[in-house]
Amino acid sequence: MTCRDFLEFLVEYSSGDLAGLEFAEFEAHLAECPECLTYLEAYEKTIQLVKTAYAHPRNRVPDDVPERLVRAVLAARTKKA
Q1: Which of 15, 52, 59, 65 has the most other CB atoms within 10 Å of its CB?
Q2: What is the pTM of this model?
Q3: CA 31 to CA 68: how far, in whole Å?
Q4: Burial class (CB in 10 A: 0-12, 13-18, 19+), 10
């Protein structure tokens, strides 16, 4: 599996929908590619932050969240509305 393949299966992997040979190849790639592992960790943290923000819309954004990420999420919300 290449890094490009990794990106194609990222959503399925994170949601638990990746199985069989593709799952094994994905896991093997993660074990060998620190860049993709870092990307996966950042992706999952971003998903968790967005879920938290939507679960409690009146709560303040944690201080450790980059301002650039906050602006991107707000821009995406505006486009959907």
Answers
A1: 65
A2: 0.64
A3: 30
A4: middle
Q: What is the mean pLDDT of residues 42-54?
A: 82
73 close to 53: Cβ distance less than 8 angstroms: yes
Angle between helices 3-15 and 20-32 in degrees, nearest 10: 120
Cα torsion angle, 24, 31, 6, 50, sign: positive
- CB–CB of 64/37 below 8 Å? no
Contact 46, 69 (CB under 8 A): yes
Three-state SS at 69: helix
Query: For 24-41, what is each residue's pLDDT tens digit?
Result: 999 999 999 999 999 999
Contacts of 69 (CB under 8 A, 6+ apart): 46, 49
